[in-house]
């Protein structure tokens, strides 16, 4: 599934949120936590202990950074049970950013039921991340305007 979304903020503001899983709980409703497992700077191969909320359940897995092109492209692989890959590509779009988010995977075990959801329902669930990111970026703008 691919989502194409416009955000009213430049790539330099948007991209860091996709490149840093530690920020995901701020805007992605399903993300319970992300914790860096490796020391040092973020680089290809960096791993994050991950916990997502799926209804009343907690799903534990590892996110692994596969590709990073600063302010342009980042690719994450999520291990079982998600067995998925998401690629975020950010490009300037007027005064904002066009984000193409490509989601692919082969969900395992009990999570396979999620794969049976109709595409529009899955898209609506994934769009909540972008709604949350808009909210976070707008709040940053308000704080900046107040001089906080």
Describe this structure in words.
- There is one protein chain.
- The protein is α+β, with helices and mostly antiparallel strands.
- The protein has one domain: Alpha-D-Glucose-1,6-Bisphosphate, Chain A, domain 4 (2-Layer Sandwich).
- Helices cover 30% and strands 40% of the residues.
- The protein contains four helices and seven strands.
- A seven-stranded antiparallel beta sheet has the order 1-7-6-5-4-3-2.
- A hairpin with a 5-residue loop joins strand 5 (73-78) and strand 6 (84-93).
- The longest helix is centred in the last third of the chain and has 28 residues, at 119-146.
- The protein is globular and about 45 Å long.
- 16% of the residues are buried.
- InterPro entries: Polyketide_cyclase/dehydratase, START-like_dom_sf.
- This is Polyketide cyclase / dehydrase and lipid transport.
Secondary-structure blueprint:
Layout (H helix, E strand, L loop, with lengths): L1 E6 L3 H9 L4 H4 L3 E6 L10 E8 L2 E13 L3 E6 L5 E10 L2 E10 L6 H4 L3 H28 L2
Antiparallel strand pairs: 1-7, 2-3, 3-4, 4-5, 5-6, 6-7
Instruction: Using the alpha-carbon principal axes, give the shape.
Output: globular
Strand order of the largest sheet: 1-7-6-5-4-3-2
The number of helical runs is 4
Residue stretches low in confidence (pLDDT < 50, at least 5 long) are none
SSE order, one letter for each helix or strand: EHHEEEEEEHH
Q: CATH superfamily assignment?
A: START domain
Structural class: alpha+beta
The end-to-end distance, rounded to whole angstroms, is: 39 Å
Q: Specify the CATH architecture.
A: 2-Layer Sandwich
Biggest sheet features: 7 strands, antiparallel
Name of the CATH first level: Alpha Beta
Helix content: 25-40%
β-strand amount = 35-45%
Calculate Rg over CA atoms. Answer: 15 Å
Number of strands: 7
CATH topology: Alpha-D-Glucose-1,6-Bisphosphate, Chain A, domain 4
The figure for the number of domains is: 1
Report the mean per-residue pLDDT as an integer.
90
Protein name: Polyketide cyclase / dehydrase and lipid transport
Pfam families: Polyketide_cyc2 (PF10604)
InterPro entries: Polyketide_cyclase/dehydratase, START-like_dom_sf
């Amino acid at each position: 599934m691919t989502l194409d979304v416009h955000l009213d903020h430049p790539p330099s503001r948007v991209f860091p949120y996709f490149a840093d899983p530690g920020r995901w709980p701020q805007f992605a409703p399903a993300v319970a936590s992300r914790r860096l497992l490796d020391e040092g700077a973020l680089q290809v191969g960096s791993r994050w202990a991950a916990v997502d909320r799926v209804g009343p359940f907690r799903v534990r897995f590892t996110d692994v950074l596969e590709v990073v092109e600063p302010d342009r492209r980042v690719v994450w692989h999520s291990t079982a049970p998600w067995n998925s890959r998401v690629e975020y590509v950010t490009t300037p779009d007027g005064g904002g950013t066009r984000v193409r988010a490509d989601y692919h995977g082969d969900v395992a075990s009990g999570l396979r039921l999620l794969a049976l959801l109709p595409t529009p329902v899955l898209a609506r669930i994934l769009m909540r991340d972008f709604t949350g990111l808009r909210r976070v970026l707008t709040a940053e703008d308000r704080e900046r305007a107040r001089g906080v």
